């Protein structure tokens, strides 16, 4: 039986919890656990920001999320309402301030991810 996991990230990219969420997903992949997707919610949407300046001597978690998506095709979903509230998207404009590896989604997508997974982890 294949195991599956969905992850909800509510922590900002400067938080150690965002890195913990990344490591959980990375370990799941290495353990042949299917990751149905990662849903970024609340301050977690800042993990998708193109213009967030993290000092070079700190962990570049945004780069790790992008690489995870590119190498493993793990879906990275961004709550559109939380992103709009934090100035990452504009309701009447297509100029989003998010990396293209992240897909704008609603809470309905979160429900779908959790329904497809055996386990849900929120950090």
State the gist of this model.
The chain has four helices and five strands. With 123 residues, the protein is α/β, with parallel strands linked by helices.
**What structural class results from the helix and strand content?**
alpha/beta
Helix content: 25-40%
Order of helices and strands: EHEHEHEHE
How many domains comprise the coordinates?
1
Query: What's the level 1 CATH class?
Result: Alpha Beta
The side-by-side strand order for the widest beta sheet comes to: 4-3-2-1-5
CATH fold-level name: Hypothetical Protein Ychn, Chain: A
Explain how this protein is built.
The chain has helices spanning 16-30, 61-72, 80-85, 107-116; strands spanning 4-9, 34-40, 76-79, 102-105, 119-122. The protein is an alpha/beta fold and 123 residues long. It has a single domain, classed as DsrEFH-like (Hypothetical Protein Ychn, Chain: A, 3-Layer(aba) Sandwich), CATH 3.40.1260. A 5-stranded parallel beta sheet has the order 4-3-2-1-5, with helices on both faces. The longest helix is centred in the first third of the chain and has 15 residues, at 16-30. The chain is globular. The model has no long low-confidence stretch (mean pLDDT 93).
């Amino acid at each position: 039986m294949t195991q599956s996991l969905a992850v909800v990230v509510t922590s900002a990219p400067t938080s150690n919890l965002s890195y913990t969420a990344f490591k959980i997903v990375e370990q799941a992949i290495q353990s042949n656990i299917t990751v149905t997707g990662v849903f970024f919610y609340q301050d977690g949407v800042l993990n998708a920001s193109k213009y967030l300046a993290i000092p070079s001597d700190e962990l570049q978690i945004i780069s790790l999320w992008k690489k995870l998506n590119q190498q493993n095709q793990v879906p990275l979903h961004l709550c559109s309402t939380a992103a709009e509230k934090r100035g990452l998207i504009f309701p009447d404009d297509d100029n989003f301030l998010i990396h293209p590896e992240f897909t704008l989604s609603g809470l309905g997508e979160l429900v779908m991810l959790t329904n497809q997974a055996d386990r849900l982890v929120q950090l």
